[in-house]
């Protein structure tokens, strides 16, 4: 950042002391429960919308088309704006909440934002599980969105600030791993509740969101604040030093503390971070804050995350088989995210981005080709091809889960200097929610009109985003979070905008 930070060696890696401590691990495990509530909601919404009793009660038009209209296309059975509003209303609420969360996170700290997120999600789970009509259902989704908006804004920041630099990737990916665990848990619960006689199992699915929300809310009460936030808000270096010594497991924290103090000094002069982030010296971070969450959403992952059971129903699998297939894909995703956690700080961010992009593109093209050739507007695909499509979708999910899934959260959370960090993370979350909403609201209609071409549409975007990463994203592994500006000043393209290493002093004068 433009605060005159001195690198301690030529390789771009700091000589900060410290190790992975149990204190850091436990704190980050609690914070990462914010990922579980997000993942649980993603998984649960797709599952309950494939349950016939749920559709019959809240969306009778869709139920009638699915059960009795033999003339309607396989691709159009679930096309309903009201049904997509049930899914997408959460993301509108999350988008708005993320901007309020920015002020809370900056002014009061990361911990209060996490606490607020857990409490709002808990209220939304209670309302959804007890819903008597579609309005209660959607209002409950809005409260869930507020909870997710606060959690997604604060948790990745918390994880990146607490983690030692050389383990930051693995710890931050813990958030996405928890998202995967949430999706898997939701699919398992949906598979069980779908079999409950009486048709009320969907209520358990929706209400069970209260379990991870309670764990996050109660756990947040005992979370420590990050050293970065303590210095930024209270200007108390001694208290921050004690916390830093505790989380790093060593008394030798002076180099890291000095960097935090310098970063905070710059931050104190920034009264309007949203105005500051559009300045030229922050152009690379702003571009990434917008591009990365946008690209994450147009990978097509929402085809699987929101509507996997619906998609498998369209392929001709039964209701239980469709839910079981969703469990399989979410298990593959969770396991692949764990693999990413193990290798991200060794292989680097760009390698995983590029490998995952190639893997997603190839599987999407094959899925689109099979559906175009074998699934018509009416009837069903053969069981053999249906399972082949399932295998290809697992390959796709694995590619996403060790690339754009976790790295879409990790990279934005680690590239912002302290003075614009909260604002930058809010922009990242808001852009993600905006395009999640757009995809969620339009996907079923796009599926109806594009048919199998929907996979080629998303495959084209994967080519674009993979090229973007290859050309414009510098490698950030092992770079301390308060010394990240160096990667932009050394990059072949961005150094033309922010200046080279030798120009750093002139940039300091601008502040």
Automatic annotation (TrEMBL):
Segment forming the signal sequence: none
Keyword Transport in annotation: yes
CDD domains: MFS_STP (cd17361)
Matching InterPro entries: MFS_dom (IPR020846), MFS_STP/MST-like_plant (IPR044778), MFS_sugar_transport-like (IPR005828), MFS_trans_sf (IPR036259), STP/PLT_plant (IPR045262), Sugar/inositol_transpt (IPR003663), Sugar_transporter_CS (IPR005829)
Protein name as catalogued: Major facilitator superfamily (MFS) profile domain-containing protein
Keyword Membrane: yes
Family recorded in the similarity comment: Belongs to the major facilitator superfamily. Sugar transporter (TC 2.A.1.1) family.
One Gene Ontology CC term in the entry: membrane
PANTHER family: HEXOSE CARRIER PROTEIN HEX6-LIKE (PTHR23500:SF593), SOLUTE CARRIER FAMILY 2, FACILITATED GLUCOSE TRANSPORTER (PTHR23500)
Domain Major facilitator superfamily (MFS) profile: 27-477
GO molecular function, one term: symporter activity
Membrane topology recorded in Swiss-Prot or TrEMBL: Multi-pass membrane protein
TM region positions: 23-44, 82-101, 113-132, 138-159, 171-189, 201-223, 286-315, 321-344, 351-373, 385-411, 423-444, 450-473
UniProt xrefs under PROSITE patterns: MFS (PS50850), SUGAR_TRANSPORT_1 (PS00216), SUGAR_TRANSPORT_2 (PS00217)
Cross-referenced Pfam families: Sugar_tr
Localization of this protein: Membrane
Keywords: Membrane, Sugar transport, Symport, Transmembrane, Transmembrane helix, Transport
SUPFAM superfamilies cross-referenced by the UniProt entry: MFS general substrate transporter (SSF103473)
High-level lineage: Eukaryota, Viridiplantae, Streptophyta, Embryophyta, Tracheophyta
